[in-house]
Write a structure and sequence with these properties.
It holds the Pfam family Glutaredoxin. By secondary structure, this protein is of the alpha+beta class. The chain has 3 helices and 4 strands. The chain has a single domain, classed as Glutaredoxin, CATH 3.40.30.
Length: 76
């Protein structure tokens, strides 16, 4: 099973887009809002400084790569 973790922040249109996209395709994900200091520090540990930052099966995705998301999650 695929594991998706999305680091987000409030008022982030790309964050909302990817969360809605995954939900529309019945893909479960875990959201970590960086207003929580622990989550912000986790994200920075990956040298990520912008949201959404996605961990797709443990692999960092610093920008939304729809082709990679769709192929990994088998979304048509």
């Amino acid at each position: 099973m695929n594991e998706i973790i999305i680091y987000t922040q409030n008022d982030c249109p790309p964050c909302t887009f990817i969360k809605n996209y995954l939900a529309d395709n019945d893909v479960a994900y875990r959201e970590k809002n960086i207003s929580n200091t622990q989550y912000r520090n986790e994200m920075i540990d990956y040298d990520a400084f912008a949201t959404p930052f996605i961990l797709l099966n443990g692999e960092p995705m610093h920008q939304i790569d729809m082709d990679k998301i769709n192929s990994t999650l088998n979304i048509k």
